[in-house]
C-alpha cells in the first residue's frame, strides 16, 4: 500500500525525537491538510504529524462530517465518518510505522468535534487529545472506557458557537468515560488565542515528554 491508498489526502512527517507523539491534526471548516501544520510546530515541534483533509464539502469548504445547520450535526454521517477516520489512522500507523497509543489528536472546531467523536466511538484510536472549541458531537448508547486518557479541552469564554454549558457537558461526558480532562476557558471567542497555544504547549510537554533526540 502506498500513501495515496490510505483513504484521505494527508500530510505525514516523521517524529524528530524518539518517543515523541504523533499529532493527528484535524482542521476546522474550510481548512485542509496544511492548515494546522504551523500550529503543530508551535505546540510540539519534535512530534510526528499526520494531517488529513476532511472529505465532506460544505459549499466547497472541506469538513470532516456533515451538519444540518450551525451546531446541528448529521449524526449518521458523523458516525460513519468517525469510523472511516479511525480506519485511516490504523492504516497510516501500519504504513508509516508508529504505534496508535502515540497518537494525540489536535483538532480545531469541526476537527475538534470529530476528535471528540473518535474518543467516544473509537477509543483505541487515540492516546490523548487537544480539543480547541469543541462541543458534544454525540452521546453514545454506551460510554467507552477511556481510563486516564489525557484530554485538554480549550474553549473560549465568549464563543458564540460553543457555550460554557456545552464545554462543561463535553468535559463531564469524557470524564464519565474515565478520561483525565483539563478544561481551560480562554478570554476569546471561537478563534484561537495566544493563550490557547501557550497552555496547549505546556500541557503537551508535561503529559507527553520527549527525552531522546533522533539523529537527523
How are the secondary structure elements laid out?
Elements: E1 10-13, E2 17-18, E3 22-26, H1 37-43, E4 48-52, E5 56-58, E6 61-63, E7 67-69, E8 72-73, H2 75-96, E9 103-108, H3 110-121, E10 128-132, E11 150-156, H4 164-176, E12 180-186, H5 194-207, E13 212-213
Parallel strand pairs: 3-4, 3-9, 9-10, 10-11, 11-12
Antiparallel strand pairs: 1-4, 2-13, 5-6, 7-8
Helix pairs in contact: 2-3
Q: How would you describe this structure in keywords?
A:
216 residues; Rossmann fold; 5 helices; alpha/beta; two-stranded antiparallel ribbon; 25% strand; 7-stranded mixed sheet
Task: Note down, in words, how this protein is organized.
Mean pLDDT is 93; it is low at 210-216. This protein is α/β, with parallel strands linked by helices. The protein is 31% helix and 25% strand. A seven-stranded mixed β-sheet has the order 1-4-3-9-10-11-12, sandwiched between helices. The protein has one domain: 3-Layer(aba) Sandwich (Rossmann fold). It has helices at residues 37-43, 75-96, 110-121, 164-176, 194-207; strands at residues 10-13, 17-18, 22-26, 48-52, 56-58, 61-63, 67-69, 72-73, 103-108, 128-132, 150-156, 180-186, 212-213.
